[in-house]
Amino acid sequence: MAECPGGESKLLVSKIREGTVIDHIPAGRALAVLKLLNPPRGARVALVMNAESRKLGRKDIVKVEGVTLTPEQTAAVALIAPKATINIIKNYDVVEKRRATPPRTVKGILRCTNPTCITRKPGEPVKPKFKLVKEEPVTLQCIYCGTIITQEEIVEQLSGQT
Ligand SMILES: [Zn+2]
Question: Which residues surround ligand 1, an ion (CB under 5 A)?
Answer without folding.
Answer: 112, 114, 117, 142, 144-145, 147
